[in-house]
UniProtKB/TrEMBL annotation:
It comes from Paludibacterium denitrificans. It comes from the Bacteria. One of its GO terms (molecular function) is oxidoreductase activity. PANTHER family: LACTATE UTILIZATION PROTEIN A, UNCHARACTERIZED PROTEIN YKGE. GO terms for cellular component: cytosol. This is (Fe-S)-binding protein. Residues 4-83, 130-224 form the Cysteine-rich domain.
């Protein structure tokens, strides 16, 4: 199969190591992966700020760039959920998009639902305690975990795939699915509330005794990471693809 690697713009600019870890992970399973240079923002910030014209243009551009691939994979639940759940607001009548939509996957979804992996491409030993952070888009639109409001037994895709890592101890905070406060442009419009939410969320992760906060969205990890650095805390954010490729560092 031919995979189109979709790297969200903020990951491309701020977290290229996450992009490289995603590529390494996919190629480790023997897949042919291409990074189309024509790709740009998926349009989520435009949509969130009411720019319907810009959001429509971004959706059509994304579709044109990726429509020929067997699958499109990205290390961001937020951007994937925008493409798969919100493009219909703008280009529902686009046949190419309707053909593309079921082929767009967040990386953990892809590994579990398409590849059905039972082991990692190479053994990874990570003798640390990690606290799982369930980002809102991944949680409620991509079903990475069971939202607490449904009052059903908790499960987590992230926790499940981390069972493939040797030496790791996986825990979850008391409030398993609480928002970190980032919320895209919310953190700009309401910085005080956003920061307070982030501080509360970090404290919940710290209470587990974890060395790392592990998540699947660099945006949430960026928000919490900024608060952690500002306050001189020792817990560290880590994208799950870095851990699965053995790229995780020391706390």
């Amino acid at each position: 199969m031919k995979i189109g690697l979709f790297i969200p713009c903020f990951i491309n600019e701020l977290y290229p190591h996450v992009a490289m870890a995603t590529l390494e992970l996919l190629e480790g399973y023997g897949l042919t992966v291409e990074f189309p240079l024509q790709q740009s923002c998926c349009g989520q910030p435009l949509a969130n700020n009411g720019d319907s014209v810009g959001a429509t243009q971004a959706a059509r551009h994304f579709t044109e760039v990726f429509k020929s691939y067997d699958y499109v994979v990205a290390p961001s639940g937020s951007c994937v959920s925008h493409v798969t759940h919100h493009y219909d607001w703008y280009i529902a009548d686009d046949r190419d998009y309707q053909g593309l939509k079921p082929k767009v996957y967040e990386i953990i979804e892809f590994l579990q639902d398409v590849l059905k992996v039972e082991k990692l491409p190479k053994p990874v030993y990570f003798p640390h305690k990690v606290s799982i952070h369930q980002s809102c888009h991944g949680l409620r639109e991509l079903h990475h975990a069971a939202p607490s409001e449904l009052m059903m037994p908790f499960h987590s895709r992230l926790a499940d795939i981390l069972k493939l890592v040797d030496g790791i101890e996986v825990v979850t905070p008391e409030r398993q699915d609480e928002c970190c406060g980032f919320g895209g442009t919310f953190c700009v419009d309401e910085p005080e509330v956003s920061t307070a939410m982030g501080e509360d969320r970090i404290a919940q992760h710290e209470a587990t005794g974890a060395d790392y906060i592990v998540g699947a969205d660099s945006s949430c990890l960026m928000h919490m990471g900024g608060i952690i650095r500002h306050n001189g805390r020792t817990i560290r954010p880590l994208h799950i693809v870095e851990l699965l490729t053995g790229r995780g560092g020391q706390p």
